């Protein structure tokens, strides 16, 4: 520096400049670097001379300047940046990117230099800048009045400069001809992260947070996998927020959803870390070198937007240094060495043991209160809240969207409308493009990525690319947009499989998928599982596959759009019929004793198939499916649902004119009659019984006619015509013998035995039932009910033979529970309660009465012909115990599940084990039969087949 240069004193503005990446630029240009460096110095010195700045030090590519006027200093920097940008450099790679920093402080020169901490602060401000950027401190901003023409200062907030304990507010010079978007300043902020600020509370997920934290602490690459809207990002950000203090070099969030070019993935990460391209060097190399010596966590969100490029960058990062860990969210895994894949489960829809609400309900409650201005849902809405979250499979995004609908709907109304999941959740949302001023953090990040990429010579995004970027940031505005984001990445086979799987209501196994497609589904199924559009759930017997309900609704829409609905749903109906047939067969392929438990898992699929049969498919096929569920509907307390499906199928027949054989109509009408009787609709029961008889006679099938006529006694008993019912039963049995179809008249035998029991003809009833035992045992559809043993147990009770009653009733209860006949098991529990009362165990009897009645009420079953008998025995028991003791024991029983009550009944001590049993005493005769205390009066409704 020349001694003649005047150094300002007082309020001095210090300026530091240097070339960003000068070492790399020198290596790239070689001998050509010196001319570039000379030209850079010439341009800066010309600017300094024009603004009367003092050049204190020039070393290599750096300048240290002092100005007596802050406005002049800013003007010099602006002019210099414009000159550098407009200069005709030899090549694009040779353009020097100069960063500049200014700070104003009180200083006095001594011996031609400044010994002041203000100089060091100015140097730190410059070190925080990026190439092409001009940063200044708050002091410079205050003193720079006026600003250069057309210029303004952008407040970048408070930052902690390296070497200084306080925080400095930094400003960026903004003016025409200068770049505007830069990564965050390179400062030593105390909070080393850029995690997005959440505007809503984080609800639930305590167990998931703990499990994911354990994985992140133990592995360097953890990928959170899940369907769109499953809450991957929210959970990952929540966990990362708790880990900030564990990583000295920061926790950095990068949204890959806005990256539309695979080559920009490294740039996106670099932009967040404050890195700029180095001339002639791949961005990923710069990124790896920077990260190699640091301990930091990089959270890469929505990597499925660029899976291959993300995998490559992640592999390079992990190989470059041991201090870097990556937590990624995606809809598909990377498949790179060292990756730990963790699939995020839906929010729990089942309440925890402590009685609190499930996570899914808690989220819906929280968001509903927000949607309703802070007003919590009414406690009466609790059941409907649970219905909603179960219908939405606990998917967080779907629950958030559902809560928004509760501004205009009650929870009950919302639950009823969820048959159209997408239409209900997406109502009123048109996916508008957000205005530029409201693009938020992701939009700013993308601008930075674009500029960093442009600095490396990459083309700016096209309008089409910008549209894709917008769709990425808006992918969670609607459920349809969320699923479309994944669907558009599928190949033809995987997309077709997704569409066709929409016809299933629940999980399916691999053979079922293969049966549906008539092709090997492993490859497309693997794609769907990898992309989290289908969930694979491993079991000991093999994996099952299912879609979350919002995804199924989307796939069903695509199925219609593709013109494939008719074929796919007809195929599903055929599969349902085949599954029903298998449920009636044993491992050897021969008819096996019917177990209603085998039908329980099929109920959802059969309902879906019936819905199609009643609206767009074959009503005849629907009647076949309904027939397979005949006993299941009544034993599960769903007789009304069965009647509704049959009515819909009748309407479908009238609509299409489909020809239905008379035999099949007769079977449907007979089933309808039984459902109506179980539902207490006795006029409808008789009407359909008559229709069934007429159709059966036209069909000319003796066995079918016998089954229909055998059911005629039921409506007669229900209407109080007991003598007529007995006459009909005897006629049907005699006719069946003549036609050699005795097995088909078995229901008439049981009805007659009940009527004989009611009027005290116990010997005839026992003889009739003894003859019926081999017939029942030969019929797989009836033998699991053990009606013969149930009725023989009642006969034994009426005779006072507790030993025979005990043995028959326990056989009946074991079989009925083993084969899923829950409604009939309630009758058996009542009978065992009577046996306990007669055997001197009144408290157990009261408990079993309470359990049986509670289960029967839950199944909405009428008490049947036994109703008066149970009531009479309960009244006698109440008189023995007293009201208080009876009610207490009855209430204890009412709290038992059917399985628990059956265990109590089966644990009742056999009469032979009682201390006073004389059955096997020497010379003892069997005790004389005790006559019933009263003849049971039959009341509607009889036990139906």
TrEMBL record:
What InterPro entries is this protein classified in?
A/G_cyclase (IPR001054), HTH_77 (IPR058852), Nucleotide_cyclase (IPR029787), P-loop_NTPase (IPR027417), TPR-like_helical_dom_sf (IPR011990)
Pfam families from the UniProt entry: Guanylate_cyc (PF00211), HTH_77 (PF25872)
UniProt-annotated stretches for the region Disordered: 922-945
- Biased composition (Low complexity) is annotated at 927-936
Q: Which SUPFAM superfamilies match?
A: Nucleotide cyclase, P-loop containing nucleoside triphosphate hydrolases, TPR-like
Q: Which PROSITE patterns match?
A: GUANYLATE_CYCLASE_2
Chain ranges of the Guanylate cyclase domain:
13-126
Instruction: Report what the protein is called.
Output: Adenylate/guanylate cyclase domain-containing protein
